[in-house]
């Protein structure tokens, strides 16, 4: 199955790097502009479940990496495609200076909270996302807190340690 | 009931009634809440100690804060605490409310909970055993007996600085102050 999928991906798309690690894990590295078509292609092949959308900050290479993990909920009807055991990881790299990308809500609607979270924690802007409002955080941060150049200890010293203890009047 | 406690009951009936019927608000924060279901059910049976969980803060007088407090949870904790009737007692459960615990350098976790609401007792540990809750409850009995569980009175007295700390952490609060904040009177009291 893995070989068949690898062959299909290689013949359909240019500039695509397909590597398989282990028996049931396939990593597909693509260019940012190809992501939407690759995801749509894979969805048609039976990978109808976006299990996770995550991001990695490669600060030395000045790039963000978006990681889409796809899985297959339904066992495919035809026997040769045993997609159910396969994890498909689609990776793409964005520039760190201007982190901007397309939303994939049109393909996988459940990407909406993931994209909101990544926008909040990494500061990646997803174009045409319906609502990029704060999801988890309560405070405002100058640098999004999951970036590697965000210094958590300095932040704790500046914010939480500055709050004084409540003085007791009895003393 | 112990017979030699009868004089105590007659002297301070309110205190004894508070002591032996603690209603704990079922407020779940962090990982410590996983210890609470066995505590209140058949295995450890908190009702032996007069502790039962209740659904809303209006019915509760014991607040167990079970685990790390994120900034967003702090808002809910303050609102819950202010809705509870007096006398009310708070117990911080686990290391995280004490000083942040393993989240001491986290960007989004409250480190010292007693800067924001008054705490009557702490249970240290990560995680404390369910027995530790009962030790805390019996300690709380002693504190109530001696009139030392005064968290809600301290909250009233130092409300201005509590509110200031809350606003430093959360920004402007959307609800009105629970107790009147009168800066002049507080200055006069201090003198």
General description of the model:
The complex is a heterodimer of chains A (171) and B (191). Chain A has 171 residues and is of the alpha/beta class. Helix content of chain A is 24%, strand content 26%. Chain A is elongated. In chain A, a hairpin with a 4-residue loop joins strand 1 (17-20) and strand 2 (25-30). The model of chain A has no long low-confidence stretch (mean pLDDT 84). Chain B has 191 residues and is of the alpha/beta class. Chain B has a single domain, classed as Rossmann fold, CATH 3.40.50.12280. Chain B is 42% helix and 11% strand. Chain B is built from nine helices and five strands. In chain B, strands 2-1-3-4-5 form a five-stranded parallel β-sheet. The longest helix of chain B is centred in the C-terminal third of the chain and has 16 residues, at 130-145. The N and C termini of chain B lie far apart (47 Å). Classes of the chains: A alpha/beta (171), B alpha/beta (191). Chains A and B meet through helix 4 of A and helix 4 and helix 8 of B.
Write a short abstract of this structure.
Chain A is α/β, with parallel strands linked by helices and 171 residues long.
Biggest sheet of chain A: strands, sense, closure? 5 strands, mixed
Sum up the overall morphology of chain A in one term. Answer: elongated
Radius of gyration of chain B: 17 Å
Largest interface (CB within 8 Å) is between: A-B, 21 and 27 residues
Percentage beta strand of chain A? 25-35%
Strand adjacency order, main sheet of chain A: 1-2-5-4-3
* Helix and strand run of chain A: HEEHEEEEHEH
What are its keywords?
heterodimer, A: 171 residues, alpha/beta, five-stranded mixed sheet, two-stranded parallel ribbon, 24% helix, B: 191 residues, Rossmann fold, 9 helices, 5 strands, 42% helix, 11% strand
Compile the SSE list and pairings.
The complex is a heterodimer of chains A (171) and B (191).
Chain A: H1 2-12, E1 17-20, E2 25-30, H2 35-44, E3 49-58, E4 63-71, E5 87-95, E6 100-102, H3 111-122, E7 125-127, H4 152-159
Parallel strand pairs in A: 2-5, 6-7
Antiparallel strand pairs in A: 1-2, 3-4, 4-5
Chain B: H1 6-11, H2 13-20, E1 22-25, H3 36-40, E2 51-54, E3 62-66, H4 71-83, E4 89-93, H5 95-99, E5 121-123, H6 130-145, H7 151-157, H8 159-170, H9 183-190
Parallel strand pairs in B: 1-2, 1-3, 3-4, 4-5
Helix pairs in contact in B: 2-6
